[in-house]
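U., I forgot to send this yesterday:
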Amino acid sequence: MEWNDEQRALRAAVVALGPVLSDGHIERDGTGTFSRDGWKRLADTGLFALPFASEHGGLGQSLLTTMYVLEGLGESCRDAGLNFSASTQIVSAGVPLARFGSAALKERYLPKIAAGTAIGAHAITEPGGGSDVMGMRTSAVPDPAPGADGFVLNGSKAFISNGPIADLIVVYARTGPPGNPAAITAFLLDRETPGLTIGNPIGKMGLRTSPLCEVFLDDVRVGADRIIGRAGSGFLILDHVMKWEILCSFVINAGEMRHRLAQCVEYARGRTQFGQHIGAYQSVSNKLVEMRIDVETACKWLYDTAEKLLAKQNVSVDIAISKLVTSEANVRSALHAVQIFGGYGYMTETGLEKEVRNAVAGTIYSGTTEIQQQRIATLMGLNRGK
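Result:
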C-alpha cells in the first residue's frame, strides 16, 4: 500500500515510543502488571483518537490508517498486553459509540475514549456460553418502577479484557427470547453503576499485562438513554464491532510477527554452529522463509479485507479467514522463533517464550479457530445437502 506523509508521521510517533513502552515488559508480564505510564504515553500520541471524528476529539482517520499505525505498535512495542488493551480501547466502546451511539452519548463519552482518560471494555461472553452469543443469558427487562423508561439487567459476563481498569463497559444483554438476533441490546454502563460489580483480575497464560476479569450484574437499572443504537440492534452492532476487533487486534499481531522475523534473521546470521552461521542450514532457513510467508499472508488478508469492508462489500468469509490465518500463523511464528534461538529462546530473558503464550490467545479470543472454520464451512454451504 502507498501511505501519505500524515499516515507515516502518525505511525512513526508510535514506533518511536516502542522502546519506552517495552522497558520492563518481561517483569510486568511476570507480575501481571498493567502499564499506566505506557497507557498515558500512548494516549499522548493520539493513538486512541485515530478513527473518531474531530468533533469528538478524534483524528478522523480511516480504518486502514488506524490499522497501519497499530501494526507499527505491534512491531515496535514488546508489551503485547498493553498493545491488546490499546486495540480493545478503540473497538470495545469507541467504535460502537461512534457508529451507533446517540448524539448525547457521543458528546459525553467519545472525547474521553479518544483521549484515553476513560478506559473502555465490552462484556459479551458469558461463563457457560463461550462463543455462543445467541445463547447469552444476561437479561434486560423493562424497568417496572413507576415512570421508569429503562431496563433492569441481571446476569454475569466472563473474560472481560480491560475489565479491572475499565471506566466504561458496553454490556450486551438479551431483551427478547433466546436465539433471536433481534433480541440483543447494547448498553453503555459507567463503572460505578449501582448493581454492577467488577470482579478481581484473573491470572492467565498470556497477555498478562492486559487485565481481565468477570463482571456481575445484579438488578442494574439502566435508562433508555444508555442504549447504543436501539433496543434489539445489539447483534448488528456486535457484528460491526467484531469486524473492527479482528482487523485492529490482529494487525498488531502481524506487526509483532514482523519484528520477530527480523529478530530471528539477525540471530541466524550471527549465531555460529559447526563452523557456519545457522541461517545457512536449510532446516533453519526454511523456518525463516515460513515466517516471512506467514507475516506477508496475514497482512495481505487483513488489509485487503479492510479495503473490502470500507467498500461495503460482504466480508463475512474474509474476516473469518483473516482471523484464522493470522492467529495460527502467529503461533507458528512464535514457536519457530523459540526453536531458532534454541535454549536461549526457552529462557524468560529473551521474551520469546512469552510470545508463544501471548500468541495462543489469538486462536481463542474473537471467536476460536474452530468457530472460524465452522463459519467458513457454513458460508460454503457445507451444512446443507444439494
